[in-house]
Design goal:
This protein is an alpha/beta fold and 250 residues long. 43% of the residues lie in helices and 18% in strands.
């Protein structure tokens, strides 16, 4: 069964189908820019996604074929600080549900950061990303800079943030920004392939694993908690038949 929610023309859309939720940015004429009016809509969609226990994946995508997302409305940068965008990204990054960014086109500024908040990123082969803060005379907010350094490394972060030069082609795979690059006509099929693979996995295992993967540093307590989670998972699946498939080919 498919369920579609649309707040207003140009606002992001939510589609629920087959255990997968898709949030589509829907203003291609503005490069799928996100505005303050979209923030409440996106939080409402995330509320619905988190409440639906039948879901195994959340996908973010853009409309059109030029851009995935150009980020938060840049004109607001000069109108004063607005932490609501940062709060939305922090929420997306912390979602227990696995997230996948299907990048149909370029990503700039906050659009790049939105993609980094997702666990997996599949993009078209001619994709370009750029962080234009230095060109605008702006210092990137702390959480965004932390994500870029943690996910891509200091060398790539310095190129993006100190030069505003784009990253493209094989650089996106080498840097770890993209999980996979595909031809334009193959993007939807690649998303379905990842969705099927995740659906075949244990949801409890994924939620726990993601919780620890997202920690930048593990304390001794974290290591003990992870070991405890490992031991509990072994005990709970010992009689389920899942462990008998350990040697199966993927």
């Amino acid at each position: 069964m498919t369920s579609v929610a649309v707040a207003s023309p140009g606002s992001p859309r939510l589609e629920l189908a087959g255990g997968c939720a898709t949030i589509a940015l829907a203003d291609p004429d503005a490069h799928n820019r996100i505005t303050p009016t979209h923030l409440a809509v996106l939080h409402e969609y995330l509320d619905r996604v988190e409440a639906d226990k039948s879901l195994h994946l959340l996908v973010f995508c853009g409309s059109g074929d030029r851009s995935f997302c150009s980020g938060y409305d840049a004109s607001l940068l000069y109108a004063g600080l607005d932490a609501r965008w940062e709060a939305l990204l922090e929420r997306i990054e912390a979602l227990p549900l696995p997230t996948l960014c299907a990048m149909n086109g370029n990503a700039y500024g906050g659009g790049l950061d939105l993609a980094l908040c997702c666990d997996l990123r599949i993009g078209v082969s001619d994709l370009r990303i750029a962080m234009l803060t230095a060109r605008l005379g702006v210092v990137l907010y702390a959480a965004g800079m932390r994500r870029i350094v943690r996910m891509l490394g200091a060398a790539v972060a310095k190129r993006l943030l100190l030069t505003a030069m784009p990253l493209q082609g094989e650089e996106l795979l080498r840097s770890g920004f993209l999980t996979e690059a595909v031809q334009r006509g193959a993007l939807d099929e690649a998303v379905k392939r990842y969705a099927s693979a995740i659906e075949a996995c244990s949801a409890d295992s994924i939620v726990t694993t993601k919780q620890f993967l997202n920690k930048p540093v593990w304390s001794d307590e974290d290591v003990a908690n992870l070991q405890g989670a490992h031991e509990r998972s072994i005990a709970s699946t010992a009689n389920s038949g899942r462990l008998s498939r350990w040697n199966d080919k993927p």
